[in-house]
């Protein structure tokens, strides 16, 4: 009997020992819960530190929308200033590398915020790719002083402004086209060689765009209270008619709508202005052709029985000048412009 009891006791101890080892290997429910909570706490702490580190890197490398707006505000290119300084001084300030870099960084951020805010919208932002092609081509030319003589210095400045260093997929807000709005708003007499219906409409759209742009900047810097009262309400409105408080999303949409309207007007004026400049270049090429034919006594086919050394030098110089003019017309109007130029030269030779 005693032997049996000892045997049972040994088996019980062995079973408890095995059960203890099993529980240690598997973990008891209470112990497992404590371990899970500790692991979750450690993992959450790790994620919070990682998020904080990523945010600091973002602020340092790409900056926040607020900091980008503050840097743009420091440039002091605004509705009040552009009319108080001479046109030449404004053009130099706009062409400064710091101005272009700072403004581009802000505009690119606004474009990405617009895409994000309207990513879940059925309609999305207005498609303006066909307009951006006219202001973001890397082959835009720069006008020379001779080409702009008699038409003001604006053509030279705008030739530079329309030349772009944008990538193949241009920004929704090309920096030079945006800054041109300030030149058009502040000094329309210096920008335009004439003041027709297209020019007046462009000034109006540039004014509206600048107002929406600066309202957006102020909203980012100060908050909804920075939006002018005239834009949010009027004294005649009842409390039920008052519009809702302006938000960043709604003001961003208003800014983009004003931009699309301005861009339509800007491209229409630019295309018209490019055609006028093309006509000037073709006229110069025809004058060179007629002058060469008279001095060298050439036939309409361009032949002469005997050319002196001086005549050959004149012919060579005119040929080189016309080659440069063709390149400028090619950059300005493409193959269609070249065809018009060749037709004009043929007509000039036939009349001679």
TrEMBL record:
It comes from the Eukaryota. GO terms for biological process: signal transduction. InterPro entries: Tcp11 (IPR008862). Keywords: Elongation factor, Protein biosynthesis. One of its GO terms (molecular function) is translation elongation factor activity. Signal peptide: none annotated. Belongs to the TCP11 family. This is Elongation factor Ts. The gene is tsf_4.
């Amino acid at each position: 009997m005693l032997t049996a009891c000892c045997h049972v006791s040994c088996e019980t101890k062995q079973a408890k020992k095995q059960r203890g080892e099993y529980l240690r290997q598997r973990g008891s429910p209470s112990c497992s819960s404590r371990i899970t909570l500790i692991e979750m706490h450690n993992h959450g702490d790790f994620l919070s530190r990682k998020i904080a580190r990523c945010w600091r890197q973002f602020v340092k490398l790409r900056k926040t929308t607020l900091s980008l707006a503050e840097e743009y505000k420091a440039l002091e290119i605004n509705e009040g200033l552009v009319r108080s300084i001479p046109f030449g001084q404004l053009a130099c300030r706009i062409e400064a590398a710091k101005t272009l870099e700072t403004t581009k960084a802000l505009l690119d951020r606004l474009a990405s915020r617009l895409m994000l805010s309207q990513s879940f919208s059925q309609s999305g932002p207005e498609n303006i790719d066909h307009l951006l092609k006219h202001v973001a081509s890397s082959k835009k030319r720069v006008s020379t002083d001779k080409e702009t003589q008699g038409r003001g210095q604006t053509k030279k400045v705008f030739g530079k402004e329309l030349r772009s260093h944008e990538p193949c997929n241009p920004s929704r807000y090309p920096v030079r086209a945006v800054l041109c709005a300030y030149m058009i708003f502040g000094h329309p007499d210096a920008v335009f060689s004439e003041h027709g219906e297209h020019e007046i409409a462009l000034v109006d759209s540039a004014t509206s765009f600048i107002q929406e742009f600066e309202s957006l900047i102020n909203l980012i810097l100060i908050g909804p209270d920075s939006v002018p009262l005239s834009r949010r309400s009027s004294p005649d409105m009842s409390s039920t008619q008052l519009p809702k408080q302006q938000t960043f999303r709604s003001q961003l949409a208003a800014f983009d709508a004003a931009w699309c309207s301005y861009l339509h007007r800007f491209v229409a004026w630019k295309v018209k202005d490019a055609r006028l400049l093309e006509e000037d270049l073709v006229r110069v090429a025809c004058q060179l052709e007629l002058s060469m034919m008279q001095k060298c006594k050439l036939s309409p086919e361009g032949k002469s029985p005997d050319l002196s050394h001086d005549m050959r030098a004149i012919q060579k110089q005119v040929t080189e000048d016309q080659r440069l003019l063709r390149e400028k017309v090619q950059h300005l109007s493409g193959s269609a412009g070249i065809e018009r130029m060749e037709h004009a030269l043929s007509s000039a030779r036939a009349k001679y």
